[in-house]
Amino acid sequence: MAHKLNIFFCIFFFFFLHQENISTSHFLHWFSSHRPHFTHKELTTEDVMFSLQWDRPMVSHWNSVQDSSSAKQSTVSLDRPQSRYCVGENLDVRVEMRDHKGQVKRHGGDFILGRIYSPKLQASASGLVTDHYNGSYRVRFTLFWPGDVQISVLLMHSSEAVQTLWRSRQLNYKKIKHTGTFVSRNKVETSECGFQLNTNQSLCEYKDERDGEYYACYKPASLPCDSIDTMSSANTPGSALTNDEKLLLTCDNFFKKFIAVPLPLSLSLSLSLSVVTPYKGLQKCIPGMKSPIPSGYFFGSRWFSSSCKTVNFFDAESINSCLKGKRIYFNGDSTMRQWIQYLNHFQKDFKSLDGTGFSSMIIANHHSNFTIQWKNHGHPWITVRPIKIAESRYISRDLDSIKVEGKEEQVVVVISVGQHFRAFPLELFVRRLLSLRRAIQRLQTRILGTQVFIKLENTREFSSEQERFSDWHGHLQNLAQKKVFGDLNVGFIDAWDMTVAANTFRVHPSEAIVANEMAVFLSYLCHAP
Ligand SMILES: *[C@@H]1O[C@H](CO)[C@@H](O)[C@H](O)[C@H]1NC(C)=O
Ligand SMILES: *[C@@H]1O[C@H](CO)[C@@H](O)[C@H](O)[C@H]1NC(C)=O
Ligand SMILES: *[C@@H]1O[C@H](CO)[C@@H](O)[C@H](O)[C@H]1NC(C)=O
Q1: Residues 474, 479, 484, 486: is their CA dihedral positive or negative?
Q2: Full-prediction pTM beyond 0.90?
Q3: Beta pairing class for 136-142 and 228-235
Q4: Residue owning the nearest CA to atom 7 of ligand 3
Q5: Is the pLDDT of residue 474 over 70?
Q6: Ligand 2 within 6 A of 200 CB?
Q7: For the segment 217-231, what is each residue's pLDDT rounded down to a tens digit?
Q8: pLDDT band at residue 462, thresholds of 50, 70 and 90?
Q9: Strand order in the sheet with 302-305
Q10: Which ligand approaches the C-alpha of residue 327 most closely?
Q11: Distance CA 292, CA 483 (A)
């Protein structure tokens, strides 16, 4: 262990010395404040932040947008091209990054996404991007299907833009303004709420001591703190960015430009048809199993996991018979609500939808004897529509209150959080994940056999305001989720990987994607219809 760590830090040090703008004292300061805590068994926020050190931006100096990575100037080429590729083989693509002046970049940190796809076959898969930290990148694809394959590599953000996003994110909690509405009898008052308010005024503080959760509102004019009824939010007008930083995030400087493969842009691969398809004979999907990247691929618009056997759960009969006798909880944001809305299509005879539909929904299928409940997660929500405080508890509290009635009944929980956290410092999200981790452990100890799933964040629109909602924030949050939940007995539904493969970039993926996410989930739950 010690030996391993020595090597690790040597490499780390070596890297920093090559960054001209980082002084040794800066490094030592950084190191001492990010030292891992070996003596604590319980995973801490610092541990998780430390584990992401290679994925957080490295500080490098730049003077103008001209110094930032340019998709147009950079090159993508096939590594060791072959005349023939076989299904199951890897295909490596090398990205050599240059700035707008055409100069070779000497450090890493660019945010790149890669995919291979075959439109005629409705097939696609993401690639695994490896940063060599020297301006070159490897994007590794797995050739899952035979046929003509095209490659696309997308520079989502230059490393300079990524630094900018990180700086802005970590700077403050105030990129979103929350407004609380207090109601008592016929009186209504509003006041500003947030994670960090100026303490010069009287505050109403809402704390969850056990889980370390906190937010506050300025005390309303006359009503008491506990009369808080709803919360809404809006983007704050100011930006934390300089004009140059803003330029880095304008359309011209991110996502729009594909890095052209200088070889034929659309690469035709002659693939051997005789090779056994890789998904044949795969093991059952079992919670706790490791999920590789890519975690699967689309073929004929159906998603096949690369590590376990996905089953065709696409019709009412197979879906409802899988859910039979189960008590199912979907906890999380509106992408989780999409799941219950999707399942509602398959409930013909015995449905009862409950709740406002904005904070919670319930399906009870008496015929197949199952219930599904969706509940939103606790603060923060980013929405102009007021959210009922009483109806949006922290998920950890919701998990604690789960009860089973019959001995036979099986509890199933799916959690999806992330999109509403992108605008706040990463520590806030990590803290939430850690309290979820503890709640999952408590639940699985209390109700044996409880199955828990984590649905990762999917990608969203390019038109989303990048400073607050960039997919780079989502990427980092997904890495944090894998770190926090990776060693638990949970199953992952990698919505990120699916939406990168499908090139959707929609915060609410289409029903076709949701159907495939659901099929992965049910494949863990039931193995066969
Ligand atoms: C960057 O690092 C990779 C992996 O170590 C290496 O193959 C490549 O040649 C390096 N590129 C440059 C420009 O040094
Ligand atoms: C808070 O109050 C102190 C003392 O009255 C004052 O010096 C300070 O400027 C105030 N801070 C803000 C942000 O208003
Ligand atoms: C429904 O499921 C519960 C728990 O599995 C069981 O106790 C109950 O008897 C079932 N009811 C019917 C009608 O099958």
Answers
A1: positive
A2: no
A3: unpaired
A4: 406
A5: yes
A6: yes
A7: 999 999 999 999 999
A8: confident
A9: 150-157, 111-118, 123-126, 296-299, 302-305
A10: 3
A11: 14
How far apart, in whole angstroms, are the C-alpha atoms of residue 475 and residue 404? 36
Question: DSSP character for 458?
Answer: P
Backbone angles phi, psi at 182, to 5 degrees: -105, 135
Assigned token pair, 309: 């056997």
Q: Measure 320 CA to ligand 3 centroid, in angstroms.
A: 15
For the cut 80, the answer to whether the pLDDT of residue 6 exceeds it is no
Amino acid letter for position 133: Y
The rounded Cα 88 to chain-centroid distance in angstroms is: 27
Q: Mean pLDDT across the stretch 180-196?
A: 96
- Please give the full DSSP string across 321-334, using - where no structure is assigned: HHHTTEEEEEEESH
Closest ligand 3 atom to 410 CA: 5
Q: The tokens of 436 are what?
A: 């979820």
pLDDT tens, residue by residue, 495-526? 999 999 999 999 999 999 999 999 999 999 99
Distance 369 CA to ligand 1 centre (A): 58
* Segment of 81-95, 146-160, 274-288, 461-475 carrying the highest mean pLDDT: 461-475
The pair of structure tokens assigned to 382 is 């980013």
Q: Which of 354, 387, 388, 386 lies closest to 371, judged by CA?
A: 354
Q: Which one, of 508, 473, 469, lies nearest residue 111 by Cα?
A: 473
pLDDT of residue 379: 95
Domains of the chain: 176-235 (no CATH), 296-525 (3.40.50.1110)
Backbone angles phi, psi at 251, to 5 degrees: -50, -40
**Whole-angstrom Cα distance, residue 413 to residue 284?**
19
pLDDT attached to residue 3: 26
Segment 344-365 shows an average pLDDT of 79
Strand (E) or helix (H) holding 499: helix 495-502
User: Which residues have C-beta atoms less than 6 Å from ligand 3?
Assistant: 325, 369, 406, 408-409
Of 74, 146, 142, 133, the C-alpha closest to 114 is 142
The protein residue with its alpha carbon nearest to ligand 3, atom 2, reads 325
Amino acid letter, 336: M
Split at pLDDT 50, 70, 90, the class of 180 is very high
pLDDT tens digit string along 304-330?
999 899 999 999 999 999 999 999 999
* End-to-end CA, the chain: 45
State the amino acid at position 74 in one-letter form: S
Name the strand (E) or helix (H) holding 375: strand 370-375
CA 167 to CA 193: how far, in whole Å? Answer: 23
Count the helices and strands in the chain (H runs, E runs): 13, 23
Single-letter residue type at 77: S
Strands 360-365 and 370-375: antiparallel
Structure tokens at 178: 């929350």
